[in-house]
Write a structure and sequence with these properties.
The complex is a heterodimer. The longest helix of chain A is centred in the C-terminal third of the chain and has 42 residues, at about 245-285. Chain A is α+β, with helices and mostly antiparallel strands. Chain A is elongated and about 110 Å long. In chain A, strands 1, 5, 6, 7, 8, 9, 10, 11, 13 and 14 form a 10-stranded mixed sheet that branches. Chain A has a two-stranded antiparallel ribbon with strand order 2-3. In chain A, strands 4-12 form a two-stranded antiparallel sheet. Chain A has helices spanning about 5-15, 15-50, 125-135, 155-160, 195-205, 225-235, 245-285, 285-295, 300-335, 350-375, 380, and strands at about 55-60, 70, 75, 85, 100-115, 120-125, 140, 150, 165-170, 175-180, 190-195, 210, 210-215, 235-240. Chain B has a 6-stranded mixed sheet with strand order 6-7-8-3-9-10, with helices on both faces. In chain B, strand 9 (about 220-225) and strand 10 (about 225-230) form a beta hairpin. In chain B, helix 4 (about 125-135) crosses helix 5 and helix 5 runs parallel beside helix 6 (about 185-200). The two termini of chain B are about 30 Å apart. Classes of the chains: A alpha+beta, B alpha/beta. The interface of A and B includes residues 5, 12, 14 and 288 of A.
């Protein structure tokens, strides 16, 4: 018989009591883990969504000429020779050091052509990428599904009197109007948007790209670093960061994170209190036993050893089960909390911290009543007998 | 533990008093008690409820600091020791049979009996031998794996006695050992205590039952905090 046998047997044979204690801890830890896991998953999801929400880096050919437009209004009819990128080189963007921070890379070809003797601006895009990047676009009709489908900007549609289903001849090819873009208040209103490769052929710019929009999110590095890395790959390009977009993304995520951490602190405080009260009550109930231990010659240290070993075991069990339960709840709840929400995965650091927190809380909560009980005059403790 | 000589008593109670404060008033539970107990004696301390006999027993057990006076245990001034030293003294010198058994409910009979040895550093095998030996002495060796609530009152009392004597303490304190037992079981328990005493065990028993005291070699009657020795 050793002191540890007393602790083990107490937990083993007083199952209801142990289940109550472990459940108290489990609820506290599971709540904390659930909240933090959901927060982490939501943060990642928000980051991913924001990454896809518009470009924040634009790569255009370098030019010595000054821009001749202001606020979207062209102030001169001067045309100048534009330089274009080779489409084959575009994948090089993804070879930069921080390629993991790159989201969408959307190449475009631009050029003019005539429809019914009117000059129109064509923009060839990779539809799938472009539609993900410009997910605020709204259409009349259906998003393009064929290579010869077109999206017509609202202003262009009005001017050219085009409707969904109309056929438009561009160069020697026939295209179908799949959708009309609802007014955006931006340049797209004047555009005819089609498939990149189809428009390269129409414009006689096979294998050429006029500009590239890049959606990048820098969680771990400054956006300017990404810009420099892209510029390093394309010395002939002018790469510009739209810092405002990045800053607003960062601010949105920070606000959400701060809110979540605020709630997590509150939950930790409530969880800790729950554990503390449960453990305190459990030890206080054992005054009679402590009196017996002391009366048969156990020192204070012996009594503390028994109680703290029990607290350690309960803490370990509660922490591990709480962590497992917390992750399971988070994974189960996320799809309801967030549309298309996916669980960010088990965070082992959080696991370690959870178990440590449970054990610490359990020990701390037991330490005070155990110390108090062990200091009781045995005759005082035995009055309960 | 040294052997008592002709002039040296096992326990000497020297002018002890115990006063409890209750609000502004004071309750004198024990007043100026003076007596001694020799090695091998079976002393019954008798008195009505509230007479101070249980307080006296807790003072004798090193559990309750007297307000005045001294307890010398084999010349050792018990209350001159620190609380932890007194715990060691209880572990080595004193076995206690509590009123209403006070077994630990989540430990088996064998584990309850082994409990006082958990702090001695004794090897597991030796602990087992000693525990089984005392269980045999009290007639419960075949119920070693039962939990206390699976035993009758008399059996629980026997376990309490086994636990109190397992470390071979020189002094056995018994607080109303027959208080919650029927008369037949009470007689059995008293016979067991008498047998232990005949084997040389010093026993100090508190009771309000004159029949129980008839087994004692000497009776101390406590009334209103003072004692009368018979």
């Amino acid at each position: 018989m050793r002191l540890r046998n007393i602790s083990f047997n107490n937990l083993r044979r007083r199952k209801a009591k142990m289940i109550f204690l472990v459940t108290g801890l489990l609820i506290g830890i599971a709540t904390i883990v659930t909240l933090l896991s959901i927060t982490e998953s939501m943060s990642r999801d928000i980051e991913d969504r924001l990454d896809q929400f518009g470009a924040n880096i634009v790569m255009v050919p370098k030019s010595d000429d000054l821009s001749l437009s202001y606020g979207g209004i062209s102030v001169g009819g001067v045309n100048y020779q534009t330089v274009e990128f080779d489409e084959a080189r575009i994948p090089e963007i993804r070879t930069i050091e921080n390629s993991n921070n790159l989201g969408m890379v959307a190449p475009k070809v631009l050029g003019t052509t005539k429809i019914n003797d009117r000059n129109v601006l064509l923009m060839g895009v990779e539809f799938e990428t472009e539609l993900t990047l410009k997910n605020w676009w709204q259409f009349e009709g259906s998003p393009p599904s064929q290579a010869n489908d077109l999206i017509i900007g609202s202003q262009a549609a009005a001017t050219l009197k085009l409707a969904v289903g109309d056929t438009v001849k561009l160069g020697d090819k026939d295209f179908t109007v799949a959708a009309l873009l609802k007014p955006t208040g931006a340049s797209e209103d004047n555009l005819i948007i089609g498939d990149l490769h189809q428009f390269q052929a129409v414009l006689g710019k096979e294998g050429k790209v006029s500009m590239v929009e890049i959606a990048a999110f820098c969680r771990d590095c400054p956006i300017t670093e990404l810009v420099l890395q892209v510029a390093g790959k394309f010395p002939e390009a002018k790469v510009t960061a739209l810092k405002q977009a990045v800053m607003s993304k960062m601010q949105s995520i920070e606000m959400f994170k701060n809110f979540s951490y605020g709630i997590a602190v509150l939950v930790i405080a409530i969880g800790s209190l729950l554990v503390f009260v449960t453990m305190m009550g459990s030890v206080n109930e054992r005054t009679r036993e402590i009196g017996i231990f002391r009366a048969i010659g156990f020192r204070r240290g012996h009594v503390m050893q028994i109680i703290l070993l029990e607290a350690l075991l309960v803490g370990l069990l509660g922490g591990v089960l709480g962590f497992v339960a917390g992750n399971s709840i988070a994974a189960a709840v996320l799809p309801f909390v967030m549309k298309n929400g996916t669980f960010a995965g088990v965070n082992t650091t959080l696991g370690g911290v959870s178990v440590l927190l449970a054990v610490s809380l359990s020990l701390l909560a037991s330490l005070y009543p155990a110390h108090k009980a062990s200091k009781l005059d045995p005759s005082e403790a035995l009055r309960a007998l | 533990m040294t052997t008592t000589t002709e002039n040296m008593h096992l326990i000497e109670i020297q002018d002890i008093s115990k006063t409890y404060k209750s609000g502004d008033s004071e309750v004198h539970a024990i007043q100026h008690m003076d007596f001694y107990i020799d090695d091998g004696e079976f002393v019954g301390i008798m008195g009505q409820s509230g007479s101070g006999k249980s307080t006296l027993l807790s003072i004798l057990g090193g559990l309750n600091h007297p307000s005045n006076g001294k307890i010398l245990l084999d010349t050792l001034d018990v209350y001159n020791l620190t609380s932890e030293q007194r715990a060691d003294l209880r572990s080595e010198y004193i076995g206690v049979i509590f009123q209403s058994f006070q077994l630990i409910p989540y430990l088996t009979v064998l584990e309850n009996v082994k409990m006082p040895m958990a702090i001695t550093g004794m090897k597991a095998k030796k602990q087992h031998e000693m525990a089984m030996s005392v269980l045999k002495k009290v007639g419960l060796e075949n119920k070693a794996d039962r939990l206390p609530d699976q035993l009758s009152g008399g059996e629980q009392e026997r376990v309490a006695i086994a636990r109190a004597i397992v470390n071979n303490p020189p002094i056995l304190l018994a607080d109303e050992p027959t208080g919650s037992l029927d008369s037949k079981t009470a007689d059995e328990i008293m016979s067991l205590l008498k047998q232990l005493n005949e084997e040389g065990q010093t026993i100090i028993m508190v009771t309000h039952n004159p029949d129980a005291c008839s087994h004692a070699s000497r009776t101390i009657t406590v009334k209103d905090g003072t004692c009368m020795i018979h």
